[in-house]
Structure formats: structure tokens, C-alpha cells
Amino acid sequence: MEDQKDILFFKSSIDDKEISSISDALQNNTSSKIEEFEDSFKRYIGVNNAITVINASAAITLALSAIDIKRGDKVIMSVNSSVHAPEAVRHFDSEPIFIDIAPNSYNIDLDKFESYLEENNSKKVRAAIINFVAGELVDLDRLYYLCKKYNIILIEDASSALGATFDDELVGNLKADMTIFSMNQASSKNATSRCGIIVTNDDEIASRARLLRTHGIASDYDENGDLDYLYDVVDMGYKFDISELEAAFNIAQLKKTNHFIGRRVDIANIYTQRLSGLKHVKIPMFCEDQIYTQFIVEIGKNRDAFARALKDEGISTGLHYVPLHLLTYYKNKYKLKIMAYPNALNSYGKILSLPIYAAMTDEDVNYVCDKIIEIESQWV
């Protein structure tokens, strides 16, 4: 009988490189690891500005502050998004506008996105926060065209899309006003780091984001420049800046981005080969160009019981995501009907995210496959 394993939904890949970088930060305080990390991130993406913050939720909030979002403004997003997007919008007393996902996709339906813009062409529609579930992109050319046509600010929520490319260019260096990344792409409680990053080619937005990141403090208040303890507060901001140790850890992690992607593609390939053809489990079509920050399958019947059966075998799973209109706060606040977003509702009842991360061994992956096949064979 096969011994039961304990397969976490996510586990960070850490070796001597992270330890060495952190040790250097502890022993050498003459240079800034934060500046080094931001410079490394700028070079990796190929963008003018990178602003690090404590997590992706803070990045969304800071991005909205940088564009001076106001009470009553509307911000469009997919109903299949992380809660950090509408939550940030509501903190400004602005209104999140939910759009259904496209058929056979977990991302926003651009037809419905366009229809909303056509019917609500108002200055109150200020921005869109568009996410990329599992690192899979929407038609970005069309998205950029629509945002420009209707003069709305585009914030790409690429917290699950670090390293994704479109027309051979990295997401983050295309035509969005800002792009949000996360160094914890699985949004997992098991992650070692939760660092978020805003990237932009707009120097004015970047300057404002940097100011608001640390309480709106202008540290160059001393006209002579020789008293660094003088400061002024010129706007209301936040305490969103990361530590030197967080930056040191992520300098090493960033260098492994392409390795992480390659390993996830390998795991996705194993899942595809071993789980294809199962009656009650539908898997995504394998594509070597995807980055597979999540591997989302669909369970034909009783998804939650299937997940519990996997949990009994030591396998943790995830859910990306509970549609926003089903969450109590948004459902009650905006009197949203359950059937208002049929594609997301239909998808939600089936989807299940399997573990997929670089620290998984082939033995781990095959154990997950063995148990899925075993449980599925008894499913009715």
C-alpha cells in the first residue's frame, strides 16, 4: 500500500541563493536591497519604474491612490477575481463593476466588457482592473484598444502572470497604465514572501505611488540636503514599503522566475498525460506557452466532495475563485442576483486548482495523479 504523502497547495523553493542574499542584507547595510530588487525587476520586465510594496493587495490600493480614484468612481473588473481588487475599490468608496467571464475561459468576457463601456460611457467609469487567471491572458490588443477608445485607466492584475508574454513581450511592458505583480503567485498562506510590485512607464504615476507608499513623506525637505532627519508630509499615504530582508529574499527568487515557469510547465505536462480521458475530471488543454501559475481542472459532479477525498489523501487544493457576486458583502451591498453572471456561476461549481509549483517532485505529482485516478474511478 502506498504511503500517504502531505502535498501542500504551495511551497516556496528556497536554497543557498536566498540564504546568501539575506545574509548579505544582514551584514552589509551600505547599499539598499530594496533599490537593487526594484532595479532588477525593472530590467527583467523592461519597464521604466518598479515600486515594491508589502503585497499585491497593497499594490492595487496604491495604484488606485496614484490615479486619485474618488468616491463614486466606477472600476470595472472580472467577477472571477481575487477579493483584493473590489476590496481596494470599496476603500475609496468607489464602485466595483463586475463583468462575467467568457465561455470556456476563466477570464473576463471582452464582448461584455465592451458592451458595458458602450452603454455607460461616463466620466465616472475611471478604470479597469483586469486579472489573468492561471497566468492565461486575454486578447490584450483588444483590451488596450477598448481602454484607449473609452479613455479609462487600465491596471493589469498580473499577480498570477509574472513571466507571461504577449507577442514575445513580457506582460508589464505593453500598453497598460500600470501592471501589478506578486512574488507569491499562488496567493497561498504557505508562501514565504508576499511582496507586490507596481510597474509602469508613466513617470508621473510612479512618482506619486512612491510618495504615497510611505505616509506621503517628502524626505528632501531640508533645502541644503545635509540634515536627513527633516521631513514633511505632503499627502495622506500608507506604510506599504517592504523591508531590506524581504527585498533580499526576492532578489534571489526573481532570478529563478524562468526556472519556476519551466518546472510548472513540466508538471502541467505530467498532469495532462496522466489525467487525460477521465470521465469526471476535465483538464485544460496543454500549451507550452502557458506559465501555469494554477492548474485548474473541472470536476463533473460534486466538486467539494472530490476535494475532501483528495484532502483525506493528504492533497491540498485551491479555488480560483469564488465569483465576487456570491460573496455576502458584495451580494448585499449591490443587491446582485446569483444568476446575473451565468458563465462564472457555471464554472464555479466545477473548478478545482491542483498543486503546481517548482518545489514539487515528479514523485509528488504522480502521487496526486494516482489519487485523482483512484478517486475518480469510484466517482458516480
Q: What tags apply to this protein structure?
A:
380 residues, Aspartate Aminotransferase, domain 2, 2 domains, 15% strand, three-stranded antiparallel sheet, alpha/beta, seven-stranded mixed sheet, globular
Characterize the structure shown.
This protein has 380 residues and is α/β, with parallel strands linked by helices. The chain is built from 13 helices and 14 strands. The strands form four sheets. Strands 1-9-8-5-4-2-3 form a seven-stranded mixed sheet, with helices on both faces. Helix 4 (84-91) links the parallel strand 2 and strand 3. The longest helix is centred in the last third of the chain and has 19 residues, at 257-275. The chain is globular and about 75 Å long.
Q: Quick one: overall form?
A: globular
H/E topology pattern: HHEHEHEHEHEEEEEHEEHHEEHHHEH
Please give the share of residues in helix: 25-40%
Query: What order do the strands of the largest sheet run in, or round the barrel if closed?
Result: 1-9-8-5-4-2-3
Radius of gyration: 22 Å
* Total helical segments: 13
**Cα separation of the termini:** 24 Å
In total, how many beta strands? 14
CATH structural class of the largest domain: Alpha Beta
How many domains? The number is: 2
Give the overall average pLDDT. 95
CATH topology of the largest domain: the name is Aspartate Aminotransferase, domain 2
CATH superfamily of the largest domain: Type I PLP-dependent aspartate aminotransferase-like (Major domain)
**Class of secondary structure makeup:** alpha/beta
The largest β sheet comes out as:
7 strands, mixed
Q: Uncertain regions: pLDDT < 50 for 5+ in a row?
A: none
Strand content: 5-15%
- CATH architectural designation of the largest domain: 3-Layer(aba) Sandwich
